[in-house]
Amino acid sequence: MAFPIKDKIKNLNIVIGCPIGCRYCYARNNCRRFHMTEDFSRPQFFPEKLRLFETKEPKVFLLTGMSDLAYWREEWRQQVFEKAAQTPQNSYLFLTKRPERLRFTTELENLWFGVTVTCAAEKERIGILRRNISAKHYHVTFEPLSDEVGEVDLKGIGWTVIGTETGNCKGKISSKREWVEGLAAQAKAQGVPVFYKEALEGIIPGEEMVQQFPKEFGL
Ligand code: SF4
After folding, report:
1. SS (H, E, C) the chain
2. CA distance linking residue 78 with residue 27, whole number of Å
3. Are 82 and 110 in contact (CB under 8 A)?
4. Which residues line ligand 1 (CB under 6 A)?
5. Of 65, 152, 196, 202, which sees the most CB atoms within 10 A?
6. What is the pLDDT of residue 66?
7. How many angstroms separate the alpha carbon of residue 62 from the centre of ligand 1?
8. Tens-digit pLDDT profile for residues 107-126
9. 16, 40 contact by CB (below 8 A)
10. Distance between CA atoms of 92 and 139, rounded to whole angstroms?
């Protein structure tokens, strides 16, 4: 039985808001439903949440569950990186769909930068991520996987996540088993851990649900 990724990786929404406007964005709906900010298309920083980085036990946090790193202001990023440097017991994950907007270098060992790729046309984001962000760790999230991605170069990538679209949004596309398995086989061949999100149950037989983490997460 697969477990939900949220059992291990906690969302810490230090920025809320994103102007990209994906059809399937659950964060926008939650933001409106719970009146988190006035306008989801304008990202807002919540610096008071930085104290949540001060954990006793090591944790893995996703900091972009309701935003895209490419639309964070630079000063927000700096404050977050400074706090991450003071809390090396934790790992911090960031995702973007617009790596072309980012350009920076960090030597911090506990930061992981990733791109989302949902189809073949988006896989160039992986190369742009590696070129534009000089960092210790990278990851790729193939979610919601909406088409065959084809051959991918996972050089330097430390983790891949694969997931299908959830919810009942108009135009919903379910991933096909062969798309998922094609990516997983490439990751395995390139020595990259793979994590199937729990929603793939039903598409992938239960005994074949792979849920691996990088050893650096300590999970
Ligand atoms: S990039 Fe993420 S946060 Fe932004 S609209 Fe798309 S799904 Fe929502």
Report:
1. CCCCHHHCEEECCCEEECCCCCCCCHHHHHHHHCCCCCCCCCCEECHHHHHHHCCCCCCEEECCCCECHHHCCHHHHHHHHHHHHHCCCCEEEEEECCHHHCCEECCCCCEEEEEECCCHHHCHHHHHHHHHEECCEEEEEECCCCCCCCCCCCCCEEEEEECCCCCCCCCCCCCCHHHHHHHHHHHHHCCCCEEECHHHECCECHHHCCECCCHHHCC
2. 24
3. no
4. 18, 20-22, 25, 27-28, 67-68, 97
5. 196
6. 98
7. 14
8. 999 999 999 999 999 999 99
9. yes
10. 12
Q: What are the residue ranges spanned by the domains of the chain? A: 8-217
Residue 131 tokens, joined:
């070129």
Tens of pLDDT, residues 154-189? 999 999 999 999 988 888 999 999 999 999 999 999
Q: What is the pTM of this model?
A: 0.97
Q: Which atom of ligand 1 is nearest to the CA of 24?
A: 7
* CA separation for the pair 212, 219 (Å, rounded): 9
What is the CA(21)–ligand 1 centre distance, in A? 6
